[in-house]
Amino acid sequence: MPKFIASIDQGTTSTRCMIFNHAGEPVGMHQLEHEQIYPRPGWVEHDALEIWARTQDVIRGALKAANATAADIAAVGITNQRETTVVWNRRTGKPYHNAIVWQDTRTDKICAELAQSGGQDRFRAQTGLPLATYFSGPKIKWLLDNVPGLREDAEKGDAIFGNMDTWIIWNLTGGADGGAHVTDVTNASRTLLMNLDGTRWNDDLLAALDIPRAMLPEIRPSSDPAIYGYTQIDGAFGGKIPVCGDLGDQQAATVGQTCFSPGEAKNTYGTGCFMILNTGTEIVPSKSGLLTTVGYKFGAEKTVYALEGSIAITGALVQWLRDNLKMIDSAPQVEELAKTVEDNGGIYFVPAFSGLFAPYWRSDARGVIVGLTRYVNRGHFARAVLEATAFQTREVLDAMEADSGVKLKALKVDGGMVHNELLMQFQADVLGVPVIRPKVAETTALGAAYAAGLAVGFWQNTDEMRQNWGMDKTWQPSADDTARTKLYRQWKKAVTRTFDWVEG
């Protein structure tokens, strides 16, 4: 009798496989980083074949860590960095080009041209999204327009598209030998090509972006009892296991945090920061710069929607401090360095490396550090880096409360940065509400496991999942309101200094 669920979490900087038991506890895990490729300023790419190789390695490593075999695994779920776009040949399995990562800004001219008729919100009524370099559709168009021979292959039906979930599922379930070409509603909702109301590809949007429909995967539920496909006996799992859960990473974290009721929200601190508020089966248009997106769809149940605030650069800023400026040797050292000073020394770091996402959507913005004096040292830099994450989260929360009319009472948090105690306390201070970390902080992988397990009856319903959720730590906001008043005002002023940097 299978006793575990396997979850593959294909992220922006690394891929991991986690094995969970029925209590939602990890019993085995393996994780590997992959190369970040920067061909030009603003361009970010990944090697999809390297990622598939890493995926196979982490599957084997996680099984070994859990002392498990394919016979112990009831189902496999996938979660992924959303919007990152790969196009490959369905006959050979070879990508036509490196995957274009969600942070990449090369499609700014495509987006500007599309916005000439109807503005930045031209497709918002159908998709819930503004025209922005963030989403997959313009990236597909760029590939079709710039890779020789690709458009011809796409017209013939040989070239197919997927976000990273589709790429992993296709390879897991057979690849060129009959692999399932599918995606789920959450990933499809991030392409600028799907109707929010009917969760189907929109022919008018495909025509506007000049994308052949034959390239696109079939849209399926996030938890699908009909099964997408099965792992291969000669593959990394070494056996035939149903693959039946698929969620974009932030929706997966929402499920992992068991935010199943309208009004429940979570914030994930990873490469970027992503806050999601469950709005139930109602589609809530945003007037405050948020995204209206699909939250999840379980089997034949109604689609659940969400409001999302997407911040491009948070954990990636710590990585930048480590890799580009060499101020720290490892990411956890940023907290130690920040603790050497009492405050930010008057400096503010707005990391608009890929423009500004929610709530501004300014692709003309670029990063700035303001308030520099001779007094400032490395510790102040580290502190400003951490504070940037908290301030950006506050901006998104303000927008979310304005759109929903719901005043948040507490914020559930997850992701790699939630182990940074200094950041979590400052976050509570800036928001003025308690910040709550669950026992299993890696809720992204857990959410994908829940989706797969629900599809095969490993978990019977969402109530069973809720029983697994447990609180690890809560940070209460300080009585001193300086962080949420004076410092936040200065931050908002700093943000305006990033506008209009990129001309034309």
Quick description:
The protein is of the alpha+beta class and 504 residues long. It has helices at 48-66, 108-115, 124-127, 136-146, 150-156, 164-172, 185-188, 203-209, 249-256, 315-323, 333-338, 378-404, 421-431, 443-455, 462-468, 483-496, and strands at residues 4-10, 14-20, 26-33, 45-46, 73-80, 85-89, 99-100, 159-163, 182-184, 194-195, 200-201, 218-220, 229-230, 242-248, 265-269, 273-280, 291-296, 304-311, 348-350, 368-370, 411-414, 435-438, 471-475.
What does this molecule look like?
This protein has helices at 48-66, 108-115, 124-127, 136-146, 150-156, 164-172, 185-188, 203-209, 249-256, 315-323, 333-338, 378-404, 421-431, 443-455, 462-468, 483-496; strands at residues 4-10, 14-20, 26-33, 45-46, 73-80, 85-89, 99-100, 159-163, 182-184, 194-195, 200-201, 218-220, 229-230, 242-248, 265-269, 273-280, 291-296, 304-311, 348-350, 368-370, 411-414, 435-438, 471-475. The protein has 504 residues and is an alpha+beta fold. A hairpin with a 3-residue loop joins strand 1 (4-10) and strand 2. Helix 9 packs across helix 14, helix 10 packs antiparallel against helix 12 (378-404) and helix 13 (421-431) crosses helix 16.
